[in-house]
C-alpha cells in the first residue's frame, strides 16, 4: 500500500512513517506516529508481547524489553527457539526473525450505557520489524543493562553484571523502531445521543499498575537497606 | 512432536493435553496444563494479546475477550482485517484464522543480586488454535454478554444490549480451549549460592493492577447511583 493510500499523516520530523501495516483499518483517528509519545509508552512499561511465526502459525509470548534510542532489545536463552531463529554469533550473519512487538497499558474501564460502546482507555505501541541477534559484545552488555534498568531505573549498576558464562548463555536481539505506531484512547464513554437518558450508570473506572512495598529476599547481606531507586518504584 | 518427546505430563482429567507448541523449550518446570489454573488466569484478566499472521508476517494486537466454559470469544468490527480473515456469515463456512491468544498478569518485579537472574513474577496463559466466526445469533449474543461481563461481572444485564444494527456491525470469533498452557513464576530471586553475600539489595516488588474510584460520565440520568457490582471492582 502506497503512502497516499493510507490516509495517515506524511512523515515529518519526530514522526515515524505510516505504512500499510501501521495504519489501522479501524479507529484510525486513535493512531499516532510521533516519536515522543511512542517512547513515553515504551518507557513506562517493561513487559511486551512478542509475536513471531513458527511453522506457519503465530506465537505470542510475554517478555521483558529495553530501549536505547531507536532500538528495542529483548533477551533470552541462546536455547530458545525464536531467538535461535533470529540468527546468532555461531551462524554468522543472522538472517533475522520477522516480529511484531506490542506494549499495552490499560488506563481505564469505559462503561457505556450501551454494551456496544464498552471499551478500554489505554496506550499501546505496535512495532513491526525484523529482530536480529546482537553479536557485538559491547552492545550486548549495554542492551542487558538497558533491559534491567527498564524494570527499575538505576538497578543495573547496583547488581552483579553478567559474567562470561552468563553472557555466553544469553541471546540478545535488536528490533529497530521504524515501522511503529501508537494508539491511545482516553476520556469517557461514546454513547449514542439517544442512549444518554437510559437508566444505566456510565463512566470510567481508572486502572493502574501499582507497585507495593518491596519484600527483601531471605539472607540479604547484613546492613543492606532498601535502595533509593526502589522508593521511587513504589506508587 | 509426539507426546513422548515433550517431557510433559500425560493428559489427565482436568488437564489440557501438552503439545509440541505448548511445551516450552525453556523454564519447562513453570508450564502448567490444569484447567482450573488456566480458567483462573483467564478470568482475572480482560485484556489479551491476539497474534495472527498477515501477509506472512506476525501481528499482535491487544483486545478484550470473554470466556464461556472451554470457549474464548473475541469481538470486533466486521470491517477489521483479522476478523474478516476468520470468515463470516456472508462467506459461509468460515475457514478460520490461526491465532495465538496470550494473557499475562504481572505479579512482581524480581530483583536478584545478579543482573542475570532478574525476572518477573507472573501468571500467563497461551492458547493456540483456529479462530472461527460465530454465526449463530444466540451464541453471538451470549458471547457479547460474556465479553462485557468479563470486564465487570454483572455489567451486561445493567446496560443496553446490542440492537440489530450493532449486532450486524459486530464480528464475534470463537477460539476453543484445547491447545493451552499456563506459565507461573512465584517467589523470590534465584540467585546463585556464590552471589548471596554480595552487597546488593535483593527481593520482590509486588505489582498489581488496581482499580480506582469510578468517575461518572457527564449527563447521567437523574438518580443513577454507583452500581453494587462496581464497588467490587475497586481495589
TrEMBL record, chains A, B:
Annotated InterPro entries: Pyridox_Oxase-rel, Split_barrel_FMN-bd
Sequence segments annotated as region (Disordered): 1-29
Pfam families linked to this entry: Pyridox_ox_2
Organism superkingdom: Bacteria
Membrane-crossing segments per the record: none
PANTHER family: 5-NITROIMIDAZOLE ANTIBIOTICS RESISTANCE PROTEIN, NIMA-FAMILY-RELATED PROTEIN-RELATED, FLAVIN-NUCLEOTIDE-BINDING PROTEIN
Record-given protein name: Pyridoxamine 5'-phosphate oxidase family protein
Species name: Streptomyces tremellae
